[in-house]
Structures are given as C-alpha cells and as structure tokens.
C-alpha cells in the first residue's frame, strides 16, 4: 500500500493484524441495499451503500458511519 | 438535487406509514437518541444548489483501516461525484478538507474525478490538508485555505514488504511523480519549488518535507487565496453564475433571466 500521510503508519495500522470481528449484514433500507454493522438498541451503522444509482450516494443520512434503525430494514 | 429535495423525493418514493406506526417504529425517538448517544442534533436543512463534500481523516484505500481511524471512503465519494455531476439541481461543488492524507491511489482517484467535473468546484482547506490532501485541494477550479490551516508536503511512503532492489525505489519514485505532476498541473506552483518543499530537510522533526501554513501556501502558488466559508461560497456562486451564462445564453451574467 502506498501512503501519503502525516500520520504514523504504526498508528494507522494499529490493530490491523489483530482480528477484530465486524459483523456486517446486507439489508435493504427504503429501497436501497446497504451493508451495515448491527449495533445495540436496534440501530445499525452504515458501512457501505450497495447501489448502482448514483443519486443514492447523495443521501447524507446513508453516508458511511451514519446510524439507521435496523427494524425498518428488510434482510 | 438539494438534500431537502432529495429527502422529500425519497419520502415520496417510499410508502408512507401513518404517524402512529411511525412513532411505534421509533420507540426511543431518533432525535433524543442522537443527542444522548452521539452528541448530534438535527441540523436545519435549507434548499441549496451547492453540494458540500467533506474530506476528513484518513483517505482510505483498498484496505479497510482499523476502527480507530476516521476515514473518507472512496467507494462512497466517487459515486457521489458522479451523482453531483449528473444532477440537474446541483450547480456547484464545495469541497471541505481537513485530512491527514492517506492512500495515494484513492486520493488521486478522487482528485481526478473532481478535476474532470464540468460543474464549478471550490475547495476550502481547514485545519489541515496534508499529503494526498494537497492534490485533492488543488483539483478544484478555485482553492481557499484558512489562515491557520496547514499543508504538509513530504515524500510518499510504502507499507509492507520492500525488496531491496533498485526497482523498488524506481517504482516509488514513479508513484511520487504522479502526485507531483498532478499538483503542478492543477495549481500555480512550479515543479522545482514543489520538489524543494517535498525534499526539504531540517524542518520536520521526524520526516523530510515542509509544513506550509495558510499564507505561505498562497505565496507558493499552491492555493489561490486565503479565506473561509463565506469567501468560498461567494466564489463558488460567482463561478456557478459564469457557468450558467456559458451553458444558457439567456441568463445574463448578473444571473437575471432575460425575457
């Protein structure tokens, strides 16, 4: 990997080799396929939008890191 | 399409539930939960024909970085730029940077996408626009930097196994050439000055290179102007107006539709 950053590689890669398990789930939310990480309290953190429609990526409420209610999603 | 419009159209596209069902589906209340858990409040929305894109933290490449990193993901940014370019409601792009840099491939991909957009683009560097943040910042039609913001220019680095052969260095040099060429082509800095800043010794404690602060970035020709949000939006509106008059001759330069 070629990096151009002021951050130390050790800091960036810290935990890289340790297996931290992120349980990702593919769901459909308001007609859009998403890859989410289920969290506590029935929320899910958006990891990625799986869509071929560019306009879906303009939705700030679905940006990576945003939280959505998991119970409104269909699996 | 503005966010408000988009949200409205999204609402129109999905089956509407009645308020009781809506309340039942949000047992705690998303707003209260947002405030309580994440310290976030709802930001008032207004119609805007400017799409604001923030480039923050590490620019993530082909590998997902560990969770302690705050990242900008190219797989989200690239389709967003495609959407902004296609949308008839978005007339300009405002890029706000506060990044420590990151993956060269991903950063250059974003920079090339922004540079090739037909709509006016303005960038604003706040805090820091370091390393690969530099080509992204200069990829816009016009660039601003806050007076206190900095840009670090230093050589690129390689992670993982490095074989001790001349080809390793040649490869790294070729990768570095890509960013140098891009920055020189999209800003007013000369190649010799950029290289000099990049290979400067004696300034950085743990690296070679130069940290360029606000006014110096302008003096070197890396950034067009010192400014903040107000200036950036004003400039973008000016470019949007020029762009509109080019594409639609019925609109005069003052933005008033001619009969």
Automatic annotation (TrEMBL), chain A:
InterPro entries: YlzJ (IPR025619). This is YlzJ-like protein. It comes from the Bacteria. It comes from Alicyclobacillus tolerans.
TrEMBL record, chain B:
Keywords: Hydrolase, Protease. GO terms for biological process: proteolysis. Residues 10-22 have a biased composition (Polar residues). Residues 1-27 are annotated as: Disordered. The keyword Heme does not apply. Pfam families: CLP_protease. It comes from the Bacteria. Gene3D superfamilies: 2-enoyl-CoA Hydratase, Chain A, domain 1 (3.90.226.10). InterPro entries: ClpP/crotonase-like_dom_sf (IPR029045), ClpP/TepA (IPR023562). This is ATP-dependent protease ClpP protease subunit. One of its GO terms (molecular function) is peptidase activity. The keyword Hydrolase applies.
């Amino acid at each position: 990997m070629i990096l151009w950053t002021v951050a130390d590689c050790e800091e960036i890669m810290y935990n890289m080799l340790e297996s931290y398990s992120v349980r990702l789930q593919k769901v459909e939310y308001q007609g859009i396929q998403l890859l989410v990480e289920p969290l506590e309290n029935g929320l899910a953190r958006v990891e990625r939008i799986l869509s071929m429609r560019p306009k879906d990526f303009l939705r700030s409420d679905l940006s990576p890191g945003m939280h959505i209610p998991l119970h409104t999603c269909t699996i | 399409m503005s966010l408000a419009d988009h949200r409205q159209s999204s609402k129109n596209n999905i089956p509407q539930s009645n308020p009781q069902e809506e309340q039942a589906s949000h047992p705690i209340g998303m707003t209260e939960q947002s405030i309580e858990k994440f310290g976030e409040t709802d930001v008032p929305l207004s119609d805007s024909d400017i799409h604001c894109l923030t480039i923050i933290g590490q620019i993530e490449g082909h590998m997902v970085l560990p969770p302690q990193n705050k990242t900008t993901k190219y797989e989200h940014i690239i389709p967003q730029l495609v959407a902004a370019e296609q949308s008839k409601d978005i007339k300009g792009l405002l890029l706000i940077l506060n990044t420590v840099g990151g993956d060269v491939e991903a950063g250059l991909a974003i920079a090339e996408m922004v540079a090739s957009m037909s709509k006016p683009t303005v960038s604003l560097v706040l805090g820091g626009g370091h390393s690969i943040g530099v080509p992204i910042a200069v990829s816009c039609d016009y660039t601003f930097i806050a007076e206190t913001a900095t840009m670090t220019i230093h050589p690129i680095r390689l992670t993982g196994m490095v074989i001790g052969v001349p080809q390793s260095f040649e490869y790294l040099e070729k990768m570095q050439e890509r960013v140098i060429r891009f920055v020189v082509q999209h800003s007013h800095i000369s190649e010799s000055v950029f290289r000099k800043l990049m290979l400067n010794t004696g300034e950085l404690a743990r690296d070679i290179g130069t940290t360029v602060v606000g006014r110096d970035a302008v003096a070197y020709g890396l950034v067009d102007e010192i400014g903040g949000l107000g200036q950036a939006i004003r400039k973008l509106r000016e470019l949007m107006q020029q762009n509109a008059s080019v594409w639609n001759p019925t609109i005069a330069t003052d933005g008033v539709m001619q009969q």
